[in-house]
Amino acid sequence: MGPSVRNVADLLTRTAQRFPDHRALITDEQTLTWSQVDAAVSRVAASLQQRGLRPGQRVAIVLPTSQEFVTAYLGVLRADGVAVPLNTAYTAGELARLIGRSEAFAVVAGDPAVVPVRQAVAGIADALTGAPGELGQRSVPLLVVTDGALPNEIAYTSLLDTDDSPRPTTRGDEDAAALLFTSGASADPRAAMLSHRALVSNLDQVLALQPPPVTETDVLLGVLPMFHVYGLNTVLGQALASGAAVVIEPRFDPEQTLATVVRHGVTVVPVAPPMLVAWTEVDDLAAALTGVRYIASGAAALPVPVQQDIEARGGVTVHQGYGLTEAAPVVSTTYASPTPKPGSVGRPVPGTEVMLVDDDGHPVDEGDPGEVVVRGPNLFSGYWPGDVEGPDPGGWWRTGDVAYADADGDLFLVDRIKDLVIVNGFNVYPREVEEVILQDPRISEVAVVSVPDRRSGEAVKAVVVPRRGETVTAEDVVGHCRQQLARFKCPTVVEVAPALPRTATGKIAKGRLRDPGRVAEKKRAGLA
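Above: the chain sequence. Below: its structure as tokens.
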């Protein structure tokens, strides 16, 4: 993309100059051209600066995939701020912790998250009357809402009223563009610091594939949540960089989303595996996918039978990719392979190096599984706020994932080292769920593990041990979790047991609690 692109928002500037009248953001109600998006982003940026946003300050964005998300995200970056996209399914308590931890100057929110965001901001205000404590927040953030603003709030439409222009951007390259809360072995999610360099570099790498996976003539399906790195940079970012249009679909529905694909002439369909699972049950899939060039699957492992079913009945190639938030996100894709192989995540994108290493960091023998270690300009800078645990001095970063490579160099993921559960592409931290469950005084012990799930890829399983003389039901556990956690973090499988299995050293043997077939696979890979 050239050295002139220092700030992600510069991509919009360039695309608006090249394709001012091309469709950019499409909904059933409204279509915006690239020049209209560019103008709206400048107004949002100028308004945020007028309200006091200083370079490097954070703005939390709690919005579904929408035109407002796009203009808010890019407006923050053009205003020299740092975007902090947050999951709209989070509870008020979760939002308060993450907004406070990022020390957000402002929060932009819309349905379905307005009520919990209001509660979160009120909680921050209450905390600041005493000591900030663990929140880290030093002031009450401004609250901007997309509809129904209360007297003490800012209507998002008011950000679009100004005729002023934002000051020229001064931040870019190695400066943080976004904080994305992501994986960690502890209960506390950590915010990966993605620089402008990392985000732009990954777009460079993907669009360097031949033939280019996306061009200005394409129409992308925008159903993935843009608060997730997949929707944020792989979908929106590729549109910004190429000039392709994005059809905004706020939520996935198997039949309705396929109707959207047909109605708006979608040519590229980026999705997560659960969506493809749902489409395996749709009749006449081929008719709905007639105009689609290819489907891109990411965020979680795609079951081979699902891929084969979609390709056979839909008549379209499914490309699978592997990525991480910390890699902005694409590491490899079958689009980089001469022939996509079922079960493979393909080959590294240009400019990204991958090694498979053992516990000591030495390369494994050919064909053996090893931890995936990555190096490239698309890597993150470290975790907020201190640039900690980023790439090593040589530029390599250990992902915690295990894979093997076949003789052709195509990667196949085996498992994860980190004890995470990935539900619909979103990370769930077992310890966080365990701590919530242990709030019930009737429960003495709990272990949370992942189990396979046909629709979501993985699901959360909790095994609880009641205190002596107490009775606890699965419904009790699930009901309690739903009051404290986002729905995707809540257990869908709950077992009540007299005790938890333990190793000789006294640690809980979580491997014995997972699905037996999954444990057998891990043993064959030398992981269990």
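The longest strand covers residues 443-453.
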